[in-house]
Amino acid sequence: MIEIGIDSFAAWSVGTDGQAATPAVALQELVERVVHAEQVGLDVFGIGEHHRAEFLDSAPAMILAAAASVTKKIKLTSAVTVLSAADPVRVFQQFATLDLLSAGRAEMVVGRGSFIESFPLFGLALEDYDSLFAEKLDLLLEIRDNEKVWWEGKHRAALTGQGVYPRPVERADGAKLPIWLGVGGTPQSFARAGALGLPLMVAIIGGETHRFRPLVDLYREAGRRAGFAEEELKVGVHALGYVAETSQQAADEFFPGYAKTFGQVGKERGWGGVTRGNFDRLLTPEGALLVGSPEHVAEKIVQHSEALGGVSRFTFQMDVGSLPHARLMRSIELIGEKVRPVVRRVLG
Asked: Which of 146, 315, 325 is nearest to 241 (CA)?
C-alpha cells in the first residue's frame, strides 16, 4: 500500500502576527504536528538535518525521540541524515535507540544533503564529498547487518570486531532497520541505491516529475542486475506541497514563503529570481509541486506515481511556505482525511 506522510526541516514557524515563533515554541509545535499527522491517519513523519540558522533540525533523532514518546503508530524517519558529515556508529546508535523507544517505528533516509555547511563545521574537506558518503554508507550497512564489525576505510578509524549497541527491535519478519537512500538528480546515486538494494527516496522539488523516470528506471535495472526482487526496490518521492480547501487558496498562501525561501537560496547559489509565473507552472499536472485542493493533489499524486512506474511513498515538505502552525495543522488534516484515502483507493 502506498504511504503518505510529512517531512519537516523544523523551520521556525510563523505566528498570526507574521513573526517567527521562539525556537522552543517552534519545536513544541512541530511535535504537535507529528501527533496530529498520526491522528489523521498519515503513515510517516520525517525530520531533516541542517546546520543553518533558519532550521532547528541539527539533531533530528532528538526531535523524533520526542515524537516517539507521544505517538504509537506513525513511522518516524530522518529526511535526510547527512551521512557524509556524521559518524555511522553514532548514527546507528541514535536510530537504534529511537527504534527501541518507538517499538520498531524508526527508519533512516541517508544522503549527502543539499547544503554544505556541515563540512567546515565538522572539519571535513569538501573535495571528499563523494568518497566520504560512499565509505560511510558502507560502514552503516555493515553495522546494521552485524552486531560485531570488522571494517577498514580511509576517513575513519578501523573497527576490529567491536560490538555496536544498542541493537534495534527484532522484527517478526526478520526485516532490518529500514535505511532508504535519499537522492537528487545524479545518475550514479540512483544506480548505487539499486546495486545495494536500498529503497530510494527521490527529492523532486522543481521541474516536471515525469522527467525523473529514466533515473528511476536506472535504479530498478541496477537492482535487478544485483539480484534484488522487484518488491525490494521501493521508490519514494519527497516533494514540496501544501493542501488547502481550494487550489487558489493553497497557491496564494504557499507562494510568498516559497518565493522568500528560494529567493534566499538563489542568492547564495546564483539562481535567477522566483516569479509567480514560474511557480504557477509547477502547479500544473506535470509540475513537481503538490500544492492545491485535496482533489487536485490526490489526482496529481496518482499521475506522478504512474509516470514514475509506481511509487511506494509520497511525503510533503511544507516548511518552505513559512506558514503559521494553524495552517500547517489544517493542511496535515486535509492530507490525512481527504488526500490519502483517495490515493490509496486508486493506487492501493
From this structure: 315
Structure confidence at residue 316 (pLDDT): 98
Q: Are strands 159-163 and 148-151 parallel, antiparallel or unpaired?
A: antiparallel
What single DSSP character describes residue 14? B
Burial zone of 302 (CB within 10 Å; 0-12 exposed, 13-18 middle, 19+ buried): middle
Q: What are 187's three cell numbers?
A: 545518475
Q: Which of 52, 58, 13 is nearest to 31 (CA)?
A: 13
DSSP-assigned letters across all residues of 132-156: HHHHHHHHHHHHHH-SEEEE--SSS
User: In which residue are the cell numbers 483507493 written?
Assistant: 345
With cell 522539488, the residue in question is: 205
pLDDT tens digits along 53-112: 889 999 999 999 999 999 999 999 999 999 999 999 999 999 999 999 999 999 999 998
Burial class (CB in 10 A: 0-12, 13-18, 19+), 117: middle
Q: Which residues of 204-233 are buried (b: 16+ CB within 10 A; e: fewer)?
A: beeebbeebeebbebbbebbeeeebeeeeb
Distance, CA of 216 to CA of 30 (rounded, Å) = 32
* pTM of the shown model: 0.96
Q: Which residues pair with 109 in a beta bridge?
A: 180
Q: How far apart are CA 61 and CA 80, in angstroms?
A: 11
The full set of domains in the chain, from first to last, is: 3-347 (3.20.20.30)
Predicted confidence (pLDDT) per residue in 10-50, tens digit:
987 665 455 667 899 999 999 999 999 999 999 999 999 99
